[in-house]
């Protein structure tokens, strides 16, 4: 499916193929000790921040002031979590991250659905129903994926203001659909193009039209690519900060923006345990998606890496 | 659906459904990507402040931009961050991929651990590392409490080191992705190459350096472009980790753009700065696109 465009350099399927060949014979050879030793040390380093986040969020403030950040909590408390969720202050209001969480849900769900519907139908049209000029627009779209967002954010503000959606969640949904379009369209176009053409021709002979073939043949056969697209979009949109802060008002800020406001707000005593609980809470959704989806996530990022 | 050719139907309405389905793409490509970019570049030559106005002042905004200490610091930071991030990402990513490619056990576990930070947002990444690098509680405090009283490690509070503190966080978040891309490249290398090298008695590190890496050129090029276009955009990480501080010592261009457009209400400066970002990306992407597509078309 990646054969047609520049991303072809990375055949995603190869990542998934496990190791092959016979097992090495000596379990404790110097080579093995070196390889596993290095990997274990590096893995511990990568896990460290997650560990610190969890440990800090379970401590009380007095313990944090006295102890060291790597020590496990002597007395486990879930109060920071409750506070981060329900009563932490951002400077504007004091109802915690819960507001941001629900805003993020209300942003992510429609954005994921709309962007994938548009891109899948569009990719299908580009792969099977090509018309004159389609490739020109598609090339512009792909090249446009490299333009820094900063160049386009103000014109979009003007467009959204003109249609009366600046500051609303619908406006942000449109923005996410626009910037998700290049990679998703590429993904679907390449997937549909890799399907056997006979299938399409046979359906045409049987009298199926544009939508008939899409719903009855293409859609049921392309479930995996839809899952990849959903993973890609959920993590991407949930983790977005820039668009959230520009295109919504403070009362509808997504979770990432609210998290940043809670942690980096200047007033009051810093409560590091609450901050870390809030940080984990915000990272929980993409982490969940990551650990549940496993190999499909790898496939998604290999395809979507261009999004940056 | 495309109608059967009876007579001479209007060409515009042939294949109508496909055209309707492509309307969002056409609008995005033409209005936002081309139109929006052109609009910003045109207005970067005006003296717009609170509202965009077509009052052209030539290159004045650009002169002011390059004279601004804050922009100079931002560009310098981006250069340091960018070059080091490229080098370390490629080296660490490749070495980890090579280690994972040794037919080891628990490969999936190791890969999951090395890649999970990539699922987290830059905001989360920045906040965690802000906490770990906090001199009063984090690494510095821990080492001091072990007995080394004079130990100093406070990159986020030292103007000349702060960009390296951000680099640590950025590498933690991003190297997993590079490792995955490199691993895919390594798996694409023919097994027979390894066998041939072994038969010829070439040591492993030489095989990697002189045979495998040159063969992976396309993967490296693609990875480079992905890395570079991500680096130019770096924004959230800085906002979360340091808010550009201490002072203005960890500013980056993307933050400069945002601050001038939405906080300082000096749109012209914001447009000029974002146009410079665009220019940077063009300088990176055009040669790559030329090599990647231009060459192939002629072949």
Automatic annotation (TrEMBL), chain A:
Pfam families: BPD_transp_1. CDD domains: TM_PBP2. It is a multi-pass membrane protein. GO terms for cellular component: plasma membrane. It comes from the Bacteria. PANTHER family: ABC TRANSPORTER PERMEASE PROTEIN, GLUCOSE IMPORT SYSTEM PERMEASE PROTEIN GLCU. Belongs to the binding-protein-dependent transport system permease family. This is Carbohydrate ABC transporter permease. It comes from Oryzicola mucosus.
Automatic annotation (TrEMBL), chain B:
It is a multi-pass membrane protein. GO terms for cellular component: plasma membrane. Gene3D superfamilies: MetI-like (1.10.3720.10). Residues 75-290 form the ABC transmembrane type-1 domain. Keywords: Cell membrane, Membrane, Transmembrane, Transmembrane helix, Transport. The chain crosses the membrane at residues 21-45, 78-101, 113-132, 161-186, 207-232, 271-291. InterPro entries: ABC_transporter_permease (IPR051393), MetI-like (IPR000515), MetI-like_sf (IPR035906). CDD domains: TM_PBP2. GO terms for biological process: transmembrane transport. It holds the Pfam family BPD_transp_1. It comes from the Bacteria. Belongs to the binding-protein-dependent transport system permease family. This is Sugar ABC transporter permease. It is found in: Cell membrane.
């Amino acid at each position: 499916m990646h054969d047609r465009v520049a991303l072809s350099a990375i055949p995603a399927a190869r990542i998934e193929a496990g190791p092959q060949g016979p097992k090495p014979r000596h379990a404790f050879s110097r080579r093995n000790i070196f390889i596993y030793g290095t990997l274990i040390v590096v893995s511990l380093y990568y896990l460290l921040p997650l560990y610190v986040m969890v440990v800090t969020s379970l401590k009380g403030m007095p313990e944090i002031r006295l102890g060291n950040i790597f020590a496990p909590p002597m007395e486990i408390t879930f109060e920071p979590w409750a506070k981060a969720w329900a009563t932490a202050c951002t400077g504007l209001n004091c109802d915690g991250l819960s507001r941001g969480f629900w805003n993020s849900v209300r942003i992510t769900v429609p954005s994921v659905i709309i962007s994938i519907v548009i891109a899948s139908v569009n990719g299908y049209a580009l792969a099977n129903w090509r018309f004159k000029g389609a490739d020109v627009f598609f090339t512009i779209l792909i090249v446009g994926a490299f333009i820094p967002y900063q160049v386009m954010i103000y014109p979009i503000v003007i467009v959204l203001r003109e249609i009366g959606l600046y500051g609303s969640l619908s406006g942000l949904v449109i923005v996410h659909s626009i910037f998700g379009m290049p990679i998703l369209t590429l993904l679907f176009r390449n997937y549909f193009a890799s399907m056997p053409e006979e299938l399409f021709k046979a359906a045409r002979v049987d009298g199926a039209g544009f939508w008939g073939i899409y719903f009855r043949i293409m859609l049921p056969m392309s479930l995996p690519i839809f899952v990849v697209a959903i993973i890609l979009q959920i993590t991407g949109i949930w983790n977005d900060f820039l668009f959230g802060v520009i295109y919504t008002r403070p009362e509808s800020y997504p979770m990432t923006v609210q998290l940043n406001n809670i942690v980096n707000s200047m007033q009051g005593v810093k409560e590091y345990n609450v901050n870390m609980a809030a940080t984990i809470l915000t990272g929980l959704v993409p982490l969940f998606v990551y650990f549940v989806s496993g190999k499909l996530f790898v496939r998604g990022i290999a395809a979507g890496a261009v999004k940056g | 659906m495309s109608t059967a050719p009876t007579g001479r139907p209007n060409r515009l309405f042939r294949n109508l459904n496909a055209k309707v389905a492509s309307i969002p793409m056409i609008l995005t490509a033409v209005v936002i990507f081309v139109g929006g970019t052109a609009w910003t570049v045109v207005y970067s030559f005006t003296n717009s402040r609170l509202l965009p106005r077509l009052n052209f002042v030539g290159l004045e905004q650009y002169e002011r931009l390059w004279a601004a200490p804050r922009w100079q610091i931002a560009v310098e930071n981006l250069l340091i961050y960018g070059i080091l991030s490229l080098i370390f990402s490629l080296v660490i990513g490749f070495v980890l991929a090579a280690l994972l490619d040794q037919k080891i056990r628990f490969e999936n576990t190791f890969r999951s651990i090395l890649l999970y930070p990539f699922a987290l947002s830059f905001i989360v990444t920045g906040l965690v590392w802000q906490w770990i690098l906090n001199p009063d509680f984090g690494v510095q405090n821990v080492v001091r409490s072990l007995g080394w009283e004079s130990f100093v490690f406070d990159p986020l509070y030292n103007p000349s080191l702060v960009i390296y503190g951000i680099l640590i966080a950025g590498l933690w978040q991003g190297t997993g992705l590079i490792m995955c891309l490199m691993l895919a490249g390594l798996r694409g290398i023919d097994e027979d190459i390894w066998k041939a090298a072994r038969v010829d008695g070439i040591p492993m590190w030489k095989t990697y350096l002189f045979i495998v890496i040159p063969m992976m050129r396309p993967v490296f090029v693609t990875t480079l472009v992905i890395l570079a276009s991500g680096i130019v955009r770096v924004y959230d990480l800085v906002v979360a980790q340091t808010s550009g501080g201490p002072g203005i010592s960890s500013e980056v261009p993307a933050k400069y753009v945002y601050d001038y457009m939405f906080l300082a209400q000096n749109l012209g400066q914001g447009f000029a700065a974002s146009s410079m970002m665009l220019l940077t990306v063009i300088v990176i992407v055009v040669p790559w696109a030329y090599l990647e597509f231009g060459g192939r078309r002629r072949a």
